[in-house]
Design a protein that fits this description.
The chain is mainly α. The protein is built from 18 helices and 6 strands. The chain folds into 3 domains: 88 residues, Fumarase C, Chain B, domain 1, CATH 1.10.275; 203 residues, Up-down Bundle (Fumarase C, Chain A, domain 2), CATH 1.20.200.10; 78 residues, Ribonucleotide Reductase Protein R1, domain 1. The protein has a two-stranded antiparallel sheet. A two-stranded parallel ribbon has the order 3-4. The protein has a two-stranded antiparallel ribbon with strand order 5-6. The protein binds arginine (ARG). Pathway: Amino-acid biosynthesis; L-arginine biosynthesis; L-arginine from L-ornithine and carbamoyl phosphate: step 3/3.
Amino acid sequence: MKLWGGRFSSKADEIMEKFNSSLPVDYRLYREDIAGSIAHVTMQVHSDLLSPEEGELLVNGLQSILADIESGELKIEGNYEDIHSFIEMNLTERVGETGKKLHTARSRNDQVAVDMRQYARNQTSVVMDALQVLIDSLEAKGKANNVIMPGYTHLQRAQVVTFGHHLGAYAQMFKRDKKRVQNAAEILNENPLGCGALAGTTHDINRQVTTALLGFDKPVDNFLDGVSDRDYLVELMSDFSLIMMHMSRLSEELILWSSQEFRFITISDAYSTGSSIMPQKKNPDAAELIRGKTGRVYGSLFALLTTLKGLPLTYNKDMQEDKEQFFDALDTVLDCLEIMSKMIDTLQVNEKHMKAAIKGGFLNATEVADYLVAKGTPFRDAHEIVGKIIIYCEQENKAIEDLTVGELKKFSNHIEDDIYEYIDYESIITKGNKGLMKKQ
Ligand code: ARG
């Protein structure tokens, strides 16, 4: 079942048929393929390549194929080269000889290009919506649990922050990712239909008609580029890779925080699994899988970049490989976004353990130095003094706020009773510009 048997005298090898077919992968372009064909037929009528009656016959045929695929009556299967061949041959079976006119002034090269652009564009909204759901989950969870916790550098306890501010950092990353996807959607929104195989067509067609019908901003400026460009897929997969990288960092924190060593959060049973041998185990598998699948999405990005790097203009069959990588990366990122949002929505925050971790980490040491600065000590001297206080606290096994003023005065006689309020963990969060962390 071929669209191009004319110049061939013998059949392809069976393994070649299978190797060459993209139908098991590109079947999911059926809606975009039919929309592209309906727009093309409308343009053909507009350009007198088809009579209005022929146009109507083809459009009705295409619509009936769509309806039958959606209802399950027509299964996308069989020995076809790709979704384009499947639909065109099905159309000719339904409407007869007129079906053979569908491909006038078109090549599968501009056809597959217009299908993928529509598909990618449609999916950008799905990804942006999923990102927004995650952003909302992070902000809601942070707002409902804006408790103080240790902030880290080098994974060492550093200064007091709030849980809302910590989750808010991730919300910022996903907000940037959303803008990136939006930007990619704007760049890709040009119509390649009408480029033909690579060099346009001698038929007097009007690319504005399909451009308007398919919702593109303009026809592409260059035919050769129009059928060769897969930049938009690489760009979207780079965006997906960033989304995964951000989710992977968040996953890593969820895994750490849910460990017995931290106990800052409890991940819901719904997103955890147990051990077949150790009865006490509850493992953060959802977060681990998201972290793990990040490698898979990076892999897809690199696979496509590598496929494209040596290709001469214009279309080469290598480009058929774009779909498997793009679809897999897209499905993975959408699954991960959904699971991550749900995991955030349902996790429990253990305020008690977060507070206990603050107490043990000298997390107000910087504020003791700031206090000394406020009393007139140069910051470098203040830093040195607090260093000595820490050594003393470690020897005595005490926190700074547990020392008496008498003990503290041995390190600096600028220290007075007002130090306790200044270095209190809750009040630290309200001082200077730190108030930002409370505003969630
Ligand atoms: N299945 C092909 C692809 O995905 C469609 C384009 C075929 N074009 C061609 N000249 N063989 O790239």
